[in-house]
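Appendix B, example 12.
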Amino acid sequence: MTTASNEQLKTQPPEGRSLPLPPGKFGLPFIGETISFLGDPDFAKKRQQRYGPIFKTHLFGRPTVVMIGAEANRFLFSNENQYFSMSWPDSTKILLGASSLTVQTGDEHKNRRKLLSQAFQPRALTGYLSTMQNITQSYLHKWERMGTLTWYPELKKYTFDVACKFLVGTDGASDSRFGELFEDYSNGLFSIPLRLPWTRFGRALRCREQLLEKIEEIVRQRQQQPNSNEDALGIMMQAQDEDGNSLSLQELKEQVLLLLFAGHETLTSAIASFCLLLAQHPEVLATARAEQQQLGLEEPLTSEHLKQMTYLEQVLKEVLRMVPPAGGGFRETIKPCEFNGYYIPQGWAALYQILKTHEDSSVYTQPERFDPQRFAPERAEDKSKPFSHIPFGGGVRECIGKEFAKLEMKLFAALLLREYEWELLPEQNLDIVPTPLAHPRDGLQVKLRRLVG
């Protein structure tokens, strides 16, 4: 039997039913529509307008079905390990590493997730709060002294410092090279995997090796010290699965690499979007600041204090709806299936769309408006359909550090609102670049000063 006939067999609908493939085009040989996908922020929007909420394309070397909307998300998330399995482009898989939680699937993923989640339990998060507040205050004071700054790269330093402290117990601010390596590493995660030294992927591969060396140094130093549960690395080093097995050195290194990436790149994006959107919507900023004044909470802030900030909670949910850090997530079709009258062949990639889900006018009133009140209890628009608000993904693969991220965002936002005002400098491009994670094109240039009175 020829390869061609094998391919034909693969794409036969199940149970003899003659269902069509989703509409769409595969684009150029091999690269498909990857270049458009990476370069055009309206890639999904244009195709959704032409083909509807489910369409086919060809990304990162494989046929791909793009699925948009809450129903599509529910179908994908609820059929994990039945029809779909976690999948990433080759560039992402190689750079994250085979031991990374994000790459693992099935029982292996389930067991590792259970083990790693110990570092993000409420008790552990509460223990992070005081030091996190000190780091945040020190950066706010630094930016106050600077006065005028490009905020996005500064926010990267801040979130990397917090991530280093709480994930591996080191001082990220004292090692600028560590942060620089992460910058080049992150830029290659979603790229065409050409192993040439001058490509994004080639540079990222070199940085990965250097980062793993640095992480190994940290792990070996920690192995010589008394056990500590004060950070994620300490918890992971002591954790054992049900059979009493600990994580190997290689797995520890790759899990730390993942947590450092996820623990600062996505947060930088989210916090920068908060700063941008509130500067653009002074009425929301005024209401959020008034809540802080009305609560009249003394510092240091506690987790109980943060729970009282209900309007700020709505603001942060709306920020993540309007500008989710990641635009979507990939799965692999491990068994042929159908959705909304279309056939999805085995072996195809499936891509769910976070931003396009958040723009659904059947769920969100005037979705183009920045309106935190849509999340107030009396409206609760996101509750009308499950999986209509998915900044952290969903199902069994929902972001493991979700509560850590929400804690850092809320603490940062509260301290900023209580003590500082900021304005956007003129003549800058504030368009959001969606890859590798959403960020303002010109880096968010601002003037920041302490509130008077």
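Residues 1-11 have pLDDT under 50 and may be disordered. The longest strand covers residues 54-59.
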